[in-house]
Amino acid sequence: MSSCRICRREGEHRRVKAREMMFGFGDEFDYLECSACGCVQIERIPPDLSRYYPAAYYSFSDAAGARPMHPARMWLRRRRNAALVKGRDPVGAWLARRFPEPNLACLGFLHLRETDRILDVGCGAGNLLRALHDIGFRDLHGIDAFIPSEGHDRPGLTIRKGSLGDLAGTYDVILFHHSFEHVPDPAETLVAARDRLTPNGVCLLRIPTVSSLAWRHYGTDWVQFDAPRHLHLFSREGIARLADRVGMAGLEIRDVSTAFQFWGSEQYRKGIPLESERSFAKHPERAPFTKQDIHAFERRAQELNRAGEGDEIAVLLRKTDEEASSRARLVPRSVSG
């Protein structure tokens, strides 16, 4: 008998075992799939999760510390990024189609203003915030519990080591870009986010979802299962219930999945960790996929997004009063790209 941490349903839930596969540790973990809301959650949170966030963890890589970029290429990247976030630039829009950037594409429908006070929770090295800083945003803040050290500040950009509860003040926009599934207590975290939003502020959750073909097809080989770092894997119904429970209104859900759901999961089925030298993420030329395979995966991902079957969603929320919350419902909207 167990209680779902998302919808609080007690009863018998399906149990599954999942291995750590990003680094190939192979440690096994027990998860529960709620019989009511369908959310999947780790049964016992490991007492020391830091072992699973080593210095090589992908989000700790500081893109700003990479080798210098040619000025022309930097200009093109900034123009693409500005088009993704701000719109109104045909050339930038063409660059975005030619050279996709999913992290920034998810921000386009927020209609951000350069004066917005933006917080990125679980920001890693702060690469998303730096990309926003490069296109004119100057009130940017990041926090991450697992980063090895605090980032180097720029004027208008700060990165701190810690948790959301450590912060005071309010924000116009709070982002959880692939970080909400890592928090031990989703309800408590969402309440903390709600309480730090300005009256008209919004919260964006970009999360993997078990309401997807990828979960049904690959099971625990699904690359975004990511045991044990992903403590909770939400269904679309589950995230709607959680938002309603903590007094937040759902504005929109967008499907934003990519080819990663296929090539990453196929690798795991073959026993190839994400950080392996044979991984497509590390050395595409050594991976067990042709260019045609990758293009097919990309096309399939866009088809699933349009059908509302993608393995990744962007969920837009705002805080609301209790009466409005009882009426609020997330409105799914499938998009490609």
Record the SSE blueprint:
Elements (H helix, E strand, L loop, with lengths): L1 E2 L6 E2 L2 E6 L8 E6 L6 E3 L28 H16 L3 H9 L3 H4 L12 E4 L5 H8 L5 E5 L12 E5 L9 E7 L8 H10 L1 E12 L4 H6 L13 E2 L2 H10 L2 E8 L4 H10 L21 H17 L4 E8 L2 H6 L4 E3 L3
Parallel strand pairs: 6-7, 6-9, 7-8, 9-10, 12-14
Antiparallel strand pairs: 1-2, 3-4, 4-5, 5-11, 10-13, 12-13
How would you characterize the overall build of this protein?
This protein is of the alpha/beta class and 337 residues long. It has one domain (2-334): 3-Layer(aba) Sandwich (Rossmann fold). 28% of the residues lie in helices and 22% in strands. It is built from 10 helices and 14 strands. The chain has helices at 71-86, 90-98, 102-105, 127-134, 186-195, 213-218, 236-245, 260-269, 291-307, 322-327, and strands spanning 2-3, 10-11, 14-19, 28-33, 40-42, 118-121, 140-144, 157-161, 171-177, 197-208, 232-233, 248-255, 312-319, 332-334. The strands form 3 sheets. An 8-stranded mixed β-sheet has the order 8-7-6-9-10-13-12-14, with helices on both faces. A hairpin with an 8-residue loop joins strand 3 and strand 4. Helix 1 packs across helix 2 and helix 8 (260-269) crosses helix 9. The longest helix is centred in the C-terminal third of the chain and has 17 residues, at 291-307. The protein is globular. The chain starts with a strand and ends with a strand.
